[in-house]
Design a protein that fits this description.
The protein has a single domain, classed as Alanine racemase (TIM Barrel), CATH 3.20.20.10. The protein has an 8-stranded parallel β-barrel with strand order 1-2-3-4-5-6-8-9, surrounded by 4 helices. α1 crosses α2. By secondary structure, the chain is of the alpha/beta class. It starts with a helix and ends in a 6-residue tail after the last helix. α8 links the parallel β8 and β9.
Length: 226
């Protein structure tokens, strides 16, 4: 996509966003030149779903970029991004949290994490159940992890045109978020971010309380996975 289009798309989305909503530009599979165009248009937060690709881009792009890991996370690869990643969106296993903690400790830094909650009806989606979230947030094991901070939740809605179903799923996560925000605050858990909504459904997600959206194709155009 030409650079003017990326800039135009980005500014078009940002103009419509409420002040409390953060835009993550999902740049997976996109060339460095496209990210640089978005950067030049003012974007500073980029989301990648493959750690190696994110590492490669981090090495060559400006150092004030915040890198978000948005894909399904393999524990054995956490070490490659532990020195620089700003936020990890899709933590869906407690053992992954322990691995992030271990790798963050090596770099003497605290890594912010979002717990992924399974709100979609689809079997292919990952995430904790509502009950598991409540158990984890009140556990002693979590309090022992000094190099991570749980800063919110992330959820991916069902891939559907059914607005009512989407709304129900977003509201489920919003309700859990508000409840846990009231009842859980520890040294390593302070819930501030509700990450839900992508190119196809982000206006609805925002209407239902999202404070962070992950948008790729609406900025960079469709992806080529070849």
């Amino acid at each position: 996509m030409n650079s003017d289009m990326i800039k135009e798309n980005l500014l078009h989305i940002k103009r419509k966003l409420p002040g409390n909503v953060t835009l993550v530009a999902v740049s997976k599979t996109k060339p460095v030149a496209d990210l640089q165009e978005a950067y030049d248009a003012g974007q500073r937060i980029f989301g990648e779903n493959k750690i190696q690709e994110m590492v490669d881009k981090h090495e060559v792009l400006p150092k004030d970029i915040q890198w978000h890991m948005i894909g399904h996370l393999q524990s054995n690869k956490v070490k490659y991004m532990a020195s620089f990643v700003n936020l990890i969106h899709g933590v869906d296993k407690f053992k992954t949290l322990k691995e992030i903690n271990k790798q963050a400790k090596k770099h003497d830094r605290v890594i912010d994490c979002l717990l992924q909650v399974k709100i979609a009806k689809e079997e292919t989606k990952f995430g904790f159940s509502v009950d598991e979230i409540e158990t984890i947030l009140s556990s002693k094991e979590l309090k022992d992890l000094e190099y991570i901070k749980i800063v919110g939740f992330m959820g991916m809605a069902t891939f559907t045109e059914d607005k009512q179903q989407l709304e129900e799923e977003f509201l489920l996560l919003k309700t859990l978020f508000e409840k846990q925000k009231q009842t859980t605050e520890t040294k390593n858990c302070k819930l501030q971010i509700l990450s839900m909504g992508m190119s196809g459904d982000y206006p609805l997600a925002i209407a239902n309380g999202s404070t962070m959206i992950r948008v790729g194709s609406s900025i960079f155009g469709n992806r080529n996975y070849k």
